[in-house]
Amino acid sequence: LGRLEEARDQFRQAAALGYKRAIGERAFCEKLMAMRLRLPTVLAGKDRPTDALELLTLAILCQNNLERRYAAAAEFYAEAFAAKPSYATDPSAYHRYNAASSAILAGFGRGVDAATLDEAAKARLRHQGLEWLNAEVVLWTKHLASWSSLNRGRAVEMLRYCQLDKDLLSVRCGSFLATIPAEELKLWAKLWADVENGIKKIGAPPSGSVK
Question: How far is Cα 171 from Cα 178, in angstroms, rounded to an integer?
Fold first, then answer.
């Protein structure tokens, strides 16, 4: 995302070679570039996104490594999901997982816009992140029993990936865990137990298969 112009040009070349998916990727790069110009006025409250796609684009833009506006990203993701719920539940896009990552990072004071957050705001962001991540784990675990090899593959990939994702380190292990209330800690412990239980199911036959 930091080199949008370069990415756009590469997708343009790929599209010219006949890669149809590159057409959509190039268009999205161009949308991100246009939204990057609007971002300062949107954050200042002088401009407003007009639809769910613009909200989603803002969320993705704010989350990238150059912006690192995780609190804003979480807010835009929430608005995008409210405007178009399918953005959250699309298993191929990982928007809800990325939203959870942004909310969790902001909830631990990470990002350039976290300095203005009080402890109550950070707790709300962590709770939102937990809610989104729980929903993802439920979906992945369900897909482990799917007849679709694509869905099963994505579920296996994400269950394993979330245990390694550095953005989730704060709620998985380390000194950050000592900074959150005991009741919240129990909720995170349950989530990681659910992830472990899901991983244990990897390799089991699809639901209803002949043994």
Answer: 10
